[in-house]
Amino acid sequence: MESTLASTALANPDTRQALHDLAGGYLDWLSDPLEQKRRRVTVQVWAEALRNERVASIVRDGVGQRRQIADFVRERQDGGELIAHVDADALSRAMLSLILGFVLQQAWDPTLDVDGYRTVLDAMIDGFLLVGRGTTSPDRHH
Questions:
Q1: Which CATH topology does 2-132 take?
Q2: More exposed terminus of the chain, fewer Cβ within 10 Å: N or C?
């Protein structure tokens, strides 16, 4: 599901919509009560990965969508649609950590305000976009 969600969202030629679809798709998926229950087990697997290299390897392989996001970011940076001075790999890790952090917070508090979280993610995504802002990234001024 996760890889398909990322592939579908990131195929959109509209950079803004692709990123919003990616974040929104994850939040919609993770808002499903059955998925919330399943994700509580995921949190336990993450803990086990800290002490078991075999489990850690499986967990790392399961986060393959990070490479998809990094490739998307590089492509859109090259096209001038995303700020260029931010490392694509670091940005992909930060974006993914926002979703993984949501999973963890939701495990602690099933009543987490998903709409509030979505609003903040949308604002953060828009902050990385150059299109429609009339500005360029700081490294283009030098």
A1: Tetracycline Repressor; domain 2 (1.10.357)
A2: C
